[in-house]
Design brief:
The complex is a heterotetramer of chains A (168), B (980), C (94) and D (416). Chain C is mostly beta strands. Chain C is built from 1 helix and 6 strands, in the order E-E-E-H-E-E-E. Chain D is built from 10 helices and 16 strands. Classes of the chains: A alpha+beta (168), B alpha+beta (980), C mainly beta (94), D alpha/beta (416). Strand 31 of chain B pairs antiparallel with strand 14 of chain D. The structure holds flavin-adenine dinucleotide (FAD), nicotinamide-adenine-dinucleotide, flavin mononucleotide and zinc ion.
Chain lengths: 168, 980, 94, 416
């Protein structure tokens, strides 16, 4: 019974919200070896760090949890530089992975986003609707990574359980 | 096992090896896999299957698919549900069904007495009577008689409905020859394709007829196509699925009834395609003559389908009555199956009857019509008459009628595309399309299969080109040539008399007489006729009858059907389960909900959880054993006033605001001045909307030059964010301000009460928390209980408060440490009920109580917050205009009700002298004050501030309560305590 | 459900957006008369035909944008970025 | 006018109903009338009826662009109620309900007015507080509410099996508004039209007003239609959602926007629910018609629209929330859905008013105005005939906008 899809709630990641001028943003993160994505709603990757271009002057930096302290120091998020602002948001999101042969089915239930490869390529990362609320969707090997605001974690978990198993 | 008497020994597409037992109206029967309930009943010779809606006339099965106007049944047992056309129910083991709308049975129905009174029950009769003494007296019995099946049972087996999206290039509705062909060609081009059909098997007319393709039965051609489509991962085939709604931007609503996934009961698809192809075929209409509803009278297309798909001929002595040549095909096929048709009654003159009659050894009564059918519970003869009036009676037990074909333009019309009347078809056909869609096949009015398929290929080729796909090569199947469709409209037979029961809408019992009556009374447009007679408003939505209604209106008003037009085609095409529209959104997830890291702890403490703003779940209060809710609130409030309490303030909206123009932006938002705010300090502010009404209030801290942390009330945080982003992006696009919502990056536990500082000290903090070093409205970064924290000295309670903000990863640990460190001081958790008490005692405003969309800060006695230096802040101008009228305003006041300790209901009006007249104010909040040991209230009162000391009267319906008007603050008016 | 052309994200389902009503003329100066202010505040454009209106990509990128939409057909004729151009937008634009 | 009664029905049956006469006449369009009413919806026809009946003004023509009664009156969810919040609104709606109660007899036409109560099912405390405020304020004006507990609610509406303690929003109580009623919507238009026509009012269908015409001094002179110019001393625009399309031709700008509001019906079923059930927290309401179908409504589409169909997302919301309270309806079927075009004023309260153009009157902002048809017509007729607003409609004039004195009925209960 149910779909061949596995939902996993992930542990903590380091997340930084970057808003402002592109060249300033680019400078502020240059030491990480990351470049700004060249296409909207896509991400670049380096050493497990992802930089997602999610809004007009808006990027989201995702990194492994253990890098948080170092990033806090080097990105100086508390410094309200005039051209670009970086805010720590590690706690603000919960991540889930949706993987398996039928991961696409789960996404098609959860979101109106057109996830065909031509529209949502390998490096795609975008905010869209997920079970009625807003959330981040990224394509990953064999599935998707999604992030929702932490306060909705329990609700999203129930939804996933429901649609994967068909119970309730 | 008894042989079903009307089943042919061979033929059909049923699986004769599989017998299925089922029950109808309490009796057991057998059918085969592949049967519908209707075909199985007909095979068993069950012809009287229903009673009509209004007159309870005996009825049988008339159609073979969704067009069925007559036989509706109620399914019993598991998945019980009513009003299903028997023609669309797949036979399955254990199926049990009964007729709707008759009691005790269709054979003996008590309400058939209505037939005797039918003369008194013309269309709209109820408008003319039942007025005295009043309608409500008659209503219950009339309601009982109406309606069809009972509503589904409350017991729902565990079933899962699902909704999902689909995005693709080409979506084809209809799996007949033209739809299948379109799907095949499109799939070969590499496009992403979806094809749907409401039948369990594709094929459409091919399954209902003996069409040969490439010299072989058409089924082979269908199988080959399916095999190819199956192998193409870009193709989605949905059978037993109805395309029921055509929305904007090519969004098709599809309900899939039997998905292959066992855990899904039904699935609602929201399918969006770049191009939609409607290959929905055509629906046959019936003919209008006296007693045209008798059991045994069926659509010719239905008889043909029963013969070919199910191996059933539902009669021994068939007659065909037609106004066109398509029904001749049925005569040929019956003849081939060994059943001789008694006669064809064709209303067309002899000279237009062409090759269709070749090879038929049957009397053809050209230029003849059937004037009446004979027989009550089953047809046994018909009277026919010629143009010259000679009549004749012919025995028969099956009458196959064909009034011509109506292209199934339902979805086309729903897409807002235009229809046109086609004289040749005497029906409505697609005209101008309003979206990216095309019609092919019979739906486009192409009634000749060979040319319809030919045109389908050219249509799909063009579409694929437009979509950027290369057209694949393809060869059309070879078909036996058939004569071109020919019809002369016959809206009703000649020589009808007043009182004859000739039905235009079978399901709603609307007769030709009713149409005439409506028009005589002035209801002369098609929409009026529909609403006056209810024609076309049944479960079938008039699929076989509507065009006859239009034709007859035209005839009576001496106009063309094209001038009359159709009624509006609306979704759904056929009724669909509400469950398939709602899908998985139910129960716990019907609305979003939000938790903080402390929610679980709160629940474990037995807190009564409330729905707070923005879908947060918050504790309302923490019940105490053996105590009332008021006891619990008093305990919590006492703790805060005299000891210490703590609450989880995490849902409060928080925004990090920075950038070159941040200060100017804050200044624009709030009515008060922020430009003299020092770094590390916060200030309370009020925001207005453009109407000059209060939008939100909250405290904003200045973290650095042009860097602020703004808090917004829980319920309005989203609105505030939207408001700010709008101003920035639309009105001030050149300002440099960045806003990051940080609500979920910070949790807070707020310790409040005279002993709050002691608890914080006991927790251990790196911050100097003395009042001098850390004054009210200041903010400090540091550590608390070894966790990084930001402490703010704000107070929503009127007592010393420390709002300890930490990252959520630490929130639970902090909370537990607070409870532990606070225990010696008697700390208790505090819910929102208590917060309410505390803020009322202080006269702090609350959105939703005092602020009800009508007040400005002056009304609340907060004129000081309307900076005189700023006319530009949002909403200021509107406030000034409103106040310039000089009209008296309702102002915030306190009230001490003389209610003897009983709370006054919040919202109770205050009226002049307590009279039952328009109010002069109302009680916005009322609580038991733990400091005043009495009931206190806040309210808004006309001219209230000038009336302090007056006694006013609150009126709760019959009860009046005197109250003394006071200043709106009952505790520590100078604010010494919260600054302490 | 419409498909709306977000200037940043491209074509997205309406359910991701918030409709904020017709575009207003820009905020009047302080010196306009009360009547002019009231008119600006309360009287919207309300044509049968094309209307310029504001949308917010609330569940998406957060962009506020303007489209011109027909109030009967709901057809969108102009937008900050036309549907066809959306998605072609690449590169660091500032 | 043929009198309608059980006797006349029986008498006419003898002649197979061949002798019934037209409900409304079809006279030629004259050049000039005393009063022109634009829009043969509920409000327009009621205005014509009361002008004739109460004020003796019968030189009136009602101009209708489509078929009589084909606007919103043909497409509303038939809820009649008076449970408004504000002192400014309550007297008007109380008056309307009382006119409705005697209307079938007044018009000699069975409107199937069914006084069946509305039950507000309450799931949150703020909503409970708001409804109780309505109860206490309504009481002052003769609009009642009484509270029932959950057990009593379930007894009165057995089909309501959702909203239990485990659900997302458990039901905490219910409030009964007993004046609430349903009524055969089309019948209201037909009954008023029949009565007005009998009194000499002319009703011209398929007559679309294209422009308002004004004298040199600015006063109203008449209208331009697809059938030519028609002059009049007074003109009333009573076209619901289409108001601005007419007033703007005379440069009159109004604080209203037009929206699409949709409704839907289920397949007909045997009697199941004999009250109007309203769920303000979830935003859905329903009642069962005499024919058996459930008539269900939700919230308007927030986008401006002059379109009469349905937005899927808005519709879906109504279905989802209905099923939360009536889970068994998952297997009930949708039969038909449709929409209407309504106008909503800046403060969401209706407008019945003279305008800056002498002789021109407007009645608009009727987004829940079926219930208001009798009082709307009654008071507009009063205004047209006397030049003074009727006292129960006095707060509804356009003057209130001059000083932004809004009548805020926000947080209003869902039922239209
Ligand atoms: C789905 C839905 C549910 C509703 N539910 C309720 C409810 O439960 N309770 C309630 O009280 N109210 C409800 N309403 C609101 C109610 O239907 C309307 O407020 C009310 O019908 C409007 O008044 P009316 O009848 O005069 O308007 P309409 O019937 O719309 O009449 C206006 C007429 O003006 C005509 N017209 C327009 N332009 C011109 C022109 N240029 N020239 C000539 N004629 C013109 C139109 O064709 C139309 O016939 C609902 C509305 C909708 C759409
Ligand atoms: N007796 C006759 O002469 C006769 C009668 C009918 C059709 N024809 C011929 O057969 C050809 C029919 O081919 P066709 O492919 O156009 O039509 P078709 O009738 O063979 O197929 C249409 C299919 O669409 C399905 N359908 C309709 N509406 C639907 C909806 N909303 N959702 C899901 N499925 C839906 C129907 O169930 C049917 O299976 C025509 O060209 C016509 O010439 C001949
Ligand atoms: C209270 C009410 C009940 C209705 N009941 C039915 C019904 O039982 N069957 C039906 O087909 N339509 C029903 N309708 C819908 C009408 O057929 C029609 O859709 C509505 O009047 C709007 O008109 P339109 O669809 O022609 O635009 C009902 C409408 C209303 C307002
Ligand atoms: Zn976007």
């Amino acid at each position: 019974m149910g779909y061949q899809a596995t939902i996993k709630k992930l542990g903590f990641s380091a997340i930084f919200d970057i808003k402002g001028d592109a060249s300033a943003a680019s400078k502020r993160i240059s030491h990480l070896g990351l470049v700004l994505p060249s296409e909207v709603n896509t991400a670049t990757e380096k050493d497990g760090q992802y930089l997602c271009w999610v809004g007009e002057n808006h990027w989201l930096l995702l990194a492994p949890a253990e890098k948080e302290n170092q990033l806090l120091e080097t990105l100086a998020p508390h410094d309200p530089a005039m051209d670009c602002r970086i805010v720590l948001l590690s706690d603000a999101y919960t991540f889930f992975t949706v993987t398996g042969n039928q991961a696409d089915e789960i996404l098609a239930i959860a979101s109106p986003l057109d996830i065909r490869l031509i529209n949502f390529p390998k490096n795609a990362a975008t905010y869209s609707e997920l079970f009625g609320i807003g959330g981040l969707i990224m394509r990953r090997r064999n599935g998707y990574l999604i992030a929702v605001e932490r306060s909705y974690t329990d609700m999203i978990a129930i939804y996933f359980e429901k649609v994967v198993t068909g119970k309730g | 096992m008894i042989k079903a008497p009307f089943r042919l020994p061979s033929g059909g597409m049923i699986d004769r090896r599989k017998h299925i037992e089922f029950e109808f109206n309490g009796k057991a029967y057998f059918g085969h896999e592949g049967d519908t309930l209707a075909s199985a009943l007909l095979a068993n010779g069950v012809f009287l299957t229903a009673r009509s809606f209004k007159y309870h006339r005996p009825r049988g099965i008339m159609g073979a698919g969704v067009e069925e106007p007559s036989c509706l049944v109620e399914l019993l047992g598991e998945n019980a549900a009513g009003n299903h056309p028997a023609t669309t129910i797949r036979l399955r083991p254990g199926l049990a069904a009964k007729s709707v709308n008759c009691w005790p049975s269709p054979n003996f129905d008590l309400l058939s007495i209505n037939q005797l009174f039918s003369r008194f029950l013309p269309a709209g009769f109820y408008y003319k009577t039942f007025m005295w003494p009043n309608w409500h007296l008659f209503e219950p019995s009339i309601r009982q008689a109406a309606g069809l099946a009972a509503a589904p049972d409350e017991q729902i087996p565990a079933q899962h409905y699902e909704t999902r999206y689909w995005h693709g290039d080409v979506l084809i509705v209809g799996g007949g020859p033209c739809g299948l062909l379109a799907a095949l060609v499109a799939s070969r081009s590499g496009a992403r394709v979806m094809i749907i059909d409401e039948n369990p098997h594709p094929g459409g007319y091919l399954r209902a007829s003996q069409t040969m393709m490439n010299g072989k039965p058409a089924l082979d051609w269908i199988t080959a196509i399916r095999t190819e489509l199956d192998a193409n991962s870009e193709v989605t085939q949905l059978w037993d699925s109805t395309g029921w709604g055509y929305r904007e931007n090519n969004l098709l609503m599809v309900t899939e009834r039997n998905p292959s996934e066992a855990h899904v009961f039904q699935r609602g698809w929201k399918a969006r395609a770049r191009h939609v192809i409607l290959a929905t075929g055509a629906i046959e209409r019936n003919l209008v003559f006296t007693n045209n509803d008798r059991p045994g009278i069926m659509l010719a297309s239905a008889v043909q389908r029963y013969l070919n798909e199910f191996g059933v001929i539902p009669g021994r002595l068939p007659i065909i009555f037609t106004n066109n040549n398509s029904a001749y095909q049925l005569a040929h096929e019956l003849q081939a199956a060994g059943t001789k048709v008694t006669a064809i009654v064709d209303s067309r003159p002899t000279d237009v009857i062409g090759s269709e009659k070749n090879g038929l050894e049957i009397p053809i009564y050209a230029a003849h019509q059937i004037s009446t059918a004979h027989g009550g519970k089953h047809l046994h003869a018909v009277s026919i008459h010629a143009k010259d009036g000679v009549t004749k009676k012919l025995d028969c037990d099956l009458l196959a009628v064909s009034g011509g074909w109506n292209p199934a333009v339902h979805l086309f019309s729903q897409s807002r595309s235009d229809l046109a009347y086609d004289e040749g078809l005497a029906s409505f056909v697609p005209d101008k399309q309003a979206q990216k869609l095309s019609c092919v096949g019979a739906a486009a009015g192409m009634m000749n299969m060979a040319s319809a398929m030919d045109k389908t290929v050219s249509a799909i080729t063009t579409i694929l080109g437009e979509l950027g796909f290369e057209s694949p090569t393809f060869t059309l199947p070879e078909l036996v040539p058939s004569p071109n469709y020919h019809l002369y409209p016959l809206w009703h037979v000649d020589g009808m008399k007043p009182g004859d029961k000739a039905f235009v809408d079978i399901q709603n019992d609307v007769t030709l007489d009713d149409i005439g009556l409506a028009m005589r009374e002035g209801f002369d447009t098609v929409e009026h006729v529909k609403r006056y007679t209810t024609a076309g408003m049944g479960i079938d939505q008039g699929k076989v009858g509507n065009v006859n209604v239009i034709g007859n209106i035209a005839k009576i008003s001496k106009k063309q059907p094209g001038d009359i037009g159709t009624t509006t085609f609306r979704a759904p095409f056929t009724p669909v389960d509400f469950g398939s529209i709602a899908g998985q959104r139910n129960g716990a997830t019907v609305l979003p909900f939000r938790h903080t890291p402390i929610t679980q702890w709160n629940k474990e403490q037995g807190a009564i959880m409330y729905e707070a703003g923005a879908r947060w779940q918050r504790p309302g209060y923490f019940p105490i054993v053996g105590g009332s809710m008021q006891d619990a609130i008093n305990t919590e409030a006492n703790a805060v006033r005299f000891g210490v309490g703590v609450y989880d303030g995490s849902p409060l909206g928080k925004f990090d605001i920075s950038g070159r123009d941040a200060a100017a932006f804050i200044d624009l938002l709030y009515t008060n001045d922020f430009n003299d705010l020092e770094i590390g300090m916060g200030r309370y502010g009020i925001m207005l909307n453009d109407d000059g009404m209060i939008l939100d209030d909250g405290v904003t801290f200045k973290l650095a030059e042009n860097h602020y942390l703004m808090s917004a009330s829980t319920g309005f945080a989203d609105l505030v964010f939207r408001h700010m982003e709008y101003l920035l992006q639309v009105e001030c696009p050149n300002w440099q301000v960045w806003i990051t919502p940080v609500t979920s990056q910070w949790c807070n536990a707020t310790i409040c009460g005279p002993k709050a500082r002691d608890v914080l000290a006991a927790l251990g903090t790196s911050v100097d928390i003395s009042n001098k070093a850390f004054p009210f409205m200041a903010m400090r970064d540091g550590s608390v209980a070894d966790m990084p924290a930001r402490i703010c000295r704000v107070s929503f309670t009127g007592e010393v408060s420390f709002e300890i903000n930490v990252w959520p990863r630490h929130a639970e640990a902090l909370w537990l440490r607070i409870m532990e460190a606070g225990t010696p001081f008697g700390i208790v958790p505090v819910g929102s009920e208590t917060s309410h008490v505390l803020r009322v005692e202080k006269g702090f405003l609350s959105l939703g109580h005092e602020v009800d969309g009508t007040v400005d800060p002056f009304d609340l006695g907060m004129g000081w917050i309307m900076s005189s230096k700023k006319s530009h802040s949002i909403g200021r101008r509107s406030v000034d205009i409103r106040r310039s009228s000089g009209k008296q305003r309702r102002e915030l006041i306190g009230l001490i009700p003389e209610s003897g300790g009983e709370l006054v209901p919040e919202g109770a009006p205050i009226t002049p002298n307590g009279d039952r007249i328009a109010s002069e104010g109302f009680v916005s909040a009322c609580v038991w004050s733990v400091v005043n040991k009495q009931v206190i209230a806040l309210g808004l009162l006309i001219n209230g501030r000038a009336r302090i000391g007056e006694t006013v009267i609150i009126r709760d319906q019959e009860r009046t309560i005197k109250a003394i008007v006071t200043k709106p603050c009952f505790h520590d008016p100078m604010g010494h305590r919260l600054r302490g | 459900m419409l498909i709306l052309p977000c200037p940043f994200c491209g074509q997205r389902d309406e359910s991701e957006f918030v409709n904020a009503g017709p575009t207003k003329p820009s905020r009047p100066d302080a010196n306009v008369s009360d009547a002019e202010w009231v008119d600006w505040l309360t009287v919207p454009e309300n044509p049968i035909g094309y209307i310029e209106e504001k949308w917010w990509h609330a569940k998406g990128c957060g962009k506020w944008f303007t489209i011109k939409r027909h109030t009967v057909t709901h057809e969108i004729v102009t937008a900050d970025v036309m549907p066809d151009d959306v998605g072609k937008r690449t590169g660091e634009t500032t | 006018m043929a009198k309608f009664s059980a006797f006349s029905l029986a008498w006419n049956a003898l002649s197979h109903h061949r002798n019934w006469t037209r409900y409304w006449q079809n006279p030629p369009l004259a050049k000039k009338y005393e009063v022109l009413i634009i829009g043969a919806g509920g409000h327009g026809l009621a205005t014509a009826h009361y002008l004739a009946k109460n004020h003796g003004i019968t030189d009136t023509a009602v101009l209708e662009k489509g078929w009589l009664g084909g606007g919103n009156i043909a497409r509303n969810t038939v809820t009649v109620r008076s449970n408004y919040l504000r002192d400014e609104s309550l007297p008007f709606f109380v008056k309307s309900v009382s006119l409705f109660e005697g209307l079938s007899k007044d018009l000699n036409f069975n409107l199937m007015y069914s006084n069946r109560s509305m039950i507000d099912v309450i799931q949150t405390y703020p909503k409970m507080r708001e409804i109780r405020r309505r109860m206490m304020n309504g009481y002052l004006h003769g609009s009642s509410y009484s509270s029932i507990d959950v057990a009593e609610l379930r007894r009165r509406v057995p089909a309501l099996t959702g909203g239990g303690p485990e659900s997302r929003l458990p039901i905490i109580g219910a409030m009964v508004h007993k004046e609430a009623a349903t009524c055969r919507h089309d019948g209201v238009a037909w009954g008023y039209a029949r009565s007005a026509s009998t009194r000499g009012v002319e009703i011209h269908q398929h007559t679309e007003v294209k422009n308002l015409l004004r004298d040199k001094d600015g006063t109203i002179k008449g209208v331009e239609t697809n059938r030519g110019t028609v002059l009049a001393n007074k003109v009333a625009v009573v076209v619901s959602g289409h108001t601005t399309t007419i007033t703007e031709t005379a440069g009159l700008r109004l604080p209203i926007k037009s929206f699409n509001l949709a409704a839907f019906v289920s397949e007909p079923v045997k009697p199941l629910i004999d009250v109007i059930v309203n769920c303000p927290d979830l935003g859905v309401y329903l009642n069962q018609s005499d024919k058996g179908e459930l008539v269900i409504g939700g919230a308007p589409d927030p986008g401006q629209s002059f379109r009469r169909d349905v937005k899927q997302n808005v519709f879906e919301e109504a279905v989802v929330t209905m099923l939360e309270l009536f889970p068994a309806f998952r297997r009930l079927k949708l039969l038909r859905q449709w929409g209407g075009v309504l106008d909503i004023a800046h403060d969401a309260t209706p407008i019945i008013s003279a305008t800056d153009i002498p002789g021109l009157f407007v009645s608009c902002g009727w987004w829940g105005g079926f219930k208001a048809v009798p009082a709307g017509g009654y008071t507009l007729a009063h205004l047209i005939a006397t030049g003074q607003p009727h006292n129960v409609a006095a707060p509804f004039t356009l003057d209130r906008f001059h000083h932004l004195d809004f009548i805020v009925e926000s947080g209003t209960t869902t039922a239209r």
